[in-house]
Amino acid sequence: MTPSAEKSARPWRLATRLIRGVTGVVIGCLAIVALMTAGFTKYEITERLDDSLQEVGERLQFAVLALNQQGPGHDVAHLSDIKPTSLAYQITDTAGHVLLRSSNAPATRFTVPLSSGFYMLPQFRVYVTPAAQVDRFILVGEPRLHRTQATHKAILIAVLPIIGSVPCIWLLVIWIVRRGLRPLVRLQDEIRERGSGNLKPVPELALPVELSTIQVAVNSLLERLQKALSAERAFAANAAHELRNPIAALLAQAQMLRSIALRKASDAVTPKPENDTAQETANIPQRLDALISQIHRLSRTVEKLLQLSRAVAGTALRRDRFDLLPVLHVVADELDRPDHASPRIVIETGDLTHLDVLGDLDAAGILFRNLLENALRHSPQGSAVQVHVSTNAAVPPCCVAEAPAAAGQAQAVEQSTCVTIQNTCPPLAPDLLTRLTDPFVRGNASTEGSGLGLAIARTIARQMAIRMDLFSPIPGQDDGFMVQLTFQKAPPRA
């Protein structure tokens, strides 16, 4: 496995990723804000200090007046409490001679041009302005140390609260993320408690919209899983019951034949009366017939179980184009030979010569075989099973079912093909009719059968997107049973 694959396979926590991501974004934004604040503060401090230099230069006009009254000189103004960060000033003439200066100003003139403006020297920031008197200039210098200290202090005061808020923001993000993920943790705990012994739906947890959809999906999955497990248990129990009866009958008949064979062997040594021997010999064909009948029954049950297993495994999920009419006729001919004097399966197709639908051809054959076998098995002797095939141009009224179609099945009659299979029988109870497609449920317990035919048909119909509706009695009649199939018509050939 590559290092990148190992890295992607490492487990990670949503809360940690959210905390790191949100905190990183917030800190990055704060860093940008701090840099912008520092730049703006530096600009403002420079502006304010330059305004102070200009204001001091304007106020020194009185010193120029005093020099004019006293005459030129090289006076030094000694002021108290002079610090290295205090302002220094000079008053000069046009020749550059210093006429008056503060004690912290250099004895020689600041090496700057004698024109109005601000100038930067290694030690001072100098402002030059002409005096009101001719041939006089005022030079005011601010030590750069003072400007640097003032700028740093202002930036620190402006940025320090931003930096100090980072731990508070980090703690708030942790609290908000954990509080926001608390419903997810509760949902996680509820799902973790579910298992084969606990498939109850997840209760209402006051979840947000994003998690409520997950709760609905989990509850739907749990419901389907519970139904599947229940159906599997019922199927296993019913299958064992259905297989146990013919196996027990086979065992009993085999034991009787064995006992007869042992008695015949003993009769070879000790002869018995001829009447007893003749009676036992006459019973052998009957017992063999019963044995063969039970074997056939067991074979049919096993065949139905295999068909149901194939249907559940998704054998009918293909979407091929095929003609429905040949499939229906072939299955009908196998179950009811066409040379019979009175056919038991009557197919009405009208003027249709072909009928293309979408689905799986083999699965459609299994579907019709089970439905026709079920109709023949439950029809009284002398009655025929009626099969009616129609397109949207001649759909009988019974094809407009009242029950809603299942998801994924054809619902538009104008795009469908309707096949109805009817047989004569006493009407079924409504509750039995709703359970008739469950495995091992029979409409008539006295009739021979496995109870799997309609279950197989229902499974194939769902996979082939066929709408399958059951009616008993037949609409418009007092008795009978009808299966209605609505197929999706294949699109026209290009």
Short description:
By secondary structure, this protein is an alpha+beta fold.
Large-scale geometry: rod-shaped
| Euclidean distance between termini CA atoms | 49 Å
Class computed from helices, strands and strand pairing: alpha+beta
Q: How would you sum up the major sheet?
A: 6 strands, mixed
| Secondary structure: number of strands | 13
The Rg value, from CA coordinates, equals: 51 Å
> Which percent range describes the beta-strand content?
5-15%
Unreliable parts? 393-397, 400-414
- Spatial ordering of strands, largest sheet: 1-3-2-6-5-4
| SSE order | HHHEEEEEEHHHHEHEEHEEHHEE
Helices, by number, come to 11
Mean pLDDT: 77
Percentage of residues assigned to helices = 40-55%
Could you walk me through the main structural features you see in this protein, from its secondary elements to its overall organization?
The chain is α+β, with helices and mostly antiparallel strands and 494 residues long. Helices cover 52% and strands 15% of the residues. The chain has helices spanning 3-9, 14-59, 61-70, 144-180, 182-193, 209-269, 274-312, 324-335, 361-377, 430-434, 453-463, and strands at 75-77, 88-93, 98-102, 117-120, 124-130, 136-143, 320-323, 345-348, 356-359, 385-390, 416-423, 467-471, 481-488. The protein is rod-shaped and about 160 Å long. The chain crosses the membrane at residues 18-40, 154-177. It comes from Acetobacter malorum DSM 14337. One of its GO terms (molecular function) is kinase activity. Residues 238-491 form the Histidine kinase domain.
